[in-house]
Amino acid sequence: MARRKNKITKISILILMLLSLFLGVKYYKVLDEFNAYAQSSDLENKVLESQLTEILHKYDSVSAKNKIDSIKFDQVIKPNNSNAIVDKSSKSSLVQDSIVFYAKELQTAKKENRNLTVANLVETKKNNSKTNNLSALNINAKGVKIYSDAYKMSEAKIQQLRVCFTLEENQLVNSGEKTIYVQVVNPKNQIISLGDTFVESDANVKLQYSASVTTNYQKKDTDVCTYVDLEKNKTIKGKYKINIYHDFVKIGTTIFEY
Description:
45% helix; alpha+beta; 3 helices; four-stranded antiparallel β-sheet
C-alpha cells in the first residue's frame, strides 16, 4: 500500500514538473514575441515620425517661399497681369493642400500603427477622388467614307463617324450592361440625330443623342466603339464636339475636325 502511494506521488510530481516546464517555455516564447512586437512598433513609429517631420518641414519651406514670392509679385507685377497672380496662388494652394493631406494621413497611420509611405498616400488620394460614375477616356473619332460605283473615290464624302473610347476602371461602379449615348454637335451647334432620337429621365429631362451602344462593364478598362450616321444637311466643314453620356451624366468629351 505504501509503495503504491509513493508511486502515485512520484507520478504526480513528474506530471507537475512537466506541466511547469511546458508553461515556462510557453511563457518565455510569448515574452519574446511581445518584445519583438514592441521593437517593431517602436521602429514603425520612428519611421512615421521621420516622414511626418520631413513633410512638415517641406510645408513650412513652401509656405515661407510663397510669402516671399507673393511680396515680390505685388511689387513687380502690374494690375493688368492679374491672371498670372491668380495662377501662381492657385498652384501654391494645390501644393499646400497636398502636403496637409499627406501630413494628416501620416498622423492617422501613426495612431493606427501602420507603416504608410508617401507613395501609398498618393494612390489613396487618387482612389478617393473617384466617384460612382463612369468616366470615358481616350475618346477619338474618325470619318468613314462609303464608296460606290456612282461616285469617284476622290469625291466621296464621309457618311459616318466611328467613335471609340475607353470606360475607365472604377471599383465603385456596379458591374453589368451599360448603355452609353454618343452625342455629336456640329459647328452650328446642331445635334446630329437621325430620326430625332432621345431618351427621357424620370425627372422629365430629355437627352438627344446621335448613337447609342450597350457594353458589358466589369469594373475594368473597357474599350467601346460605335458608328454615328451623319445627316447630309448638317454635315459641314469645321469642328464637331463629341459628348459621351451615361445615365444623363456627361462622362467625356472631345473635338473632331472635318
